[in-house]
């Protein structure tokens, strides 16, 4: 199954500071690129547990006694690590990008390039798809999704038009959605705005930001002191959550100070964020918006 090159491969795995006999987790297995690099650095007694809720990813499972692939959403990190006998692990890696494979398979409905049914489910067993968001959300809910997750200033107008169009007949395909949005798609920015609309609906369908919050909070619980967290995000909404969590241990506000003015936070960010170099972006265009942050548990 065709998956593109893993983004920021060496910096992301370097961030884990892999110990040969350590236990590591790759919560976004995908094509298995990051996982293979972690296994390359593990010794005979090391262990790697990977997560991916997408059944397509199971076809890339690695035949290695040190490797376990869990076909679940990484919001259940703690539960399934316990199930496999691990209360703590030495490092956790996450790459929040929609996999290249998901974009490239037309009928998954992730890409603006293909005519497809409104789907966008990362978990193919989920009953809730993009169709439900576009056809069943009321105008206020739609506007909120488009504004919060797509950062679209015309969100209210877009929501109004979608509600008008679907009165005549349900909006079933990506092409029908694009047609409904025509008046909001100026020629020179058509694909950028369409991508923001898709992003907003996809985040809502998969509850992506809630999942990331749950995952980050659990990562603290499964990492020992000195354990590493290496996270790649692709847009400001994700990156803001990661940055704040690594710095403050919370997603909003500031941590409380004790009577001496000291702050107790669970993690320490290591260095500044890392972005792909020009060569990697040239080779893999999807890397262009990637941002890697690394932290260790205090």
The N- and C-terminal alpha carbons lie at a distance of 40 Å
Q: How do the SSEs run, as a string of H and E?
A: HEHEEHEHHHHHHHEHEHE
Proportion of residues in β-strands: 5-15%
Total count of strands = 7
CATH topology of the largest domain: Rossmann fold
- What is the percent of helical residues? 25-40%
Tally the helices: 12
Unreliable sequence segments: 100-106
Strand order of the largest sheet: 3-2-1-4-5-7-6
Give the class-level CATH name of the largest domain.
Alpha Beta
CATH architecture of the largest domain: 3-Layer(aba) Sandwich
The CATH superfamily of the largest domain turns out to be: Vaccinia Virus protein VP39
Mean of residue pLDDT values: 92
Structural class based on helices, strands and sheet pairing: alpha/beta
The gyration radius over C-alpha positions equals 20 Å
Major sheet description: 7 strands, mixed
Structure explained in plain terms:
The chain is α/β, with parallel strands linked by helices. It is 40% helix and 11% strand. Mean pLDDT is 92; it is low at 100-106.
């Amino acid at each position: 199954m065709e998956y593109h090159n893993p983004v920021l491969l060496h910096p992301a795995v370097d961030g884990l500071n892999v110990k040969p006999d350590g236990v590591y987790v790759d919560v976004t297995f995908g094509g298995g690129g990051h996982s293979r690099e972690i296994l390359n650095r593990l010794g005979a007694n090391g262990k790697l547990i990977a997560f991916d809720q997408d059944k397509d990813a199971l076809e890339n499972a690695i035949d290695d006694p040190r490797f376990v692939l869990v076909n679940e959403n990484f919001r259940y990190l703690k539960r399934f690590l316990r199930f496999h006998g691990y209360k703590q692990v030495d490092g956790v890696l996450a790459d929040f990008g929609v996999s290249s494979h998901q974009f490239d398979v037309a009928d998954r409905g992730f890409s603006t390039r293909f005519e497809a049914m409104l789907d966008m489910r990362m978990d193919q067993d989920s009953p809730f798809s993009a169709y439900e968001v576009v056809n069943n959300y009321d105008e206020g809910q739609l506007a909120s999704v488009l504004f919060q997750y797509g950062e679209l200033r015309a969100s209210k107008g877009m929501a109004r038009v979608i509600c008008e169009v679907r009165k005549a007949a349900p909006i079933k395909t990506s092409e029908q959605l694009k047609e409904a949005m025509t008046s909001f798609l100026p020629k020179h920015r058509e694909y950028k705005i369409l991508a923001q609309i898709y992003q907003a609906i996809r985040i809502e369908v998969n509850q992506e930001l809630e999942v990331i919050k749950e995952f980050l909070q659990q990562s603290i619980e499964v990492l020992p002191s000195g354990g590493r967290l290496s996270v790649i995000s692709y847009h400001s909404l994700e990156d803001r959550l990661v940055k704040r969590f690594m710095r403050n241990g919370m997603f909003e506000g500031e941590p409380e100070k004790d009577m001496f003015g000291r702050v107790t936070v669970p993690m320490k960010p290591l260095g500044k964020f890392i972005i792909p170099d020009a060569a990697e972006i040239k080779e893999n265009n999807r890397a262009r918006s990637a941002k890697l942050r690394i932290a260790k548990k205090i």
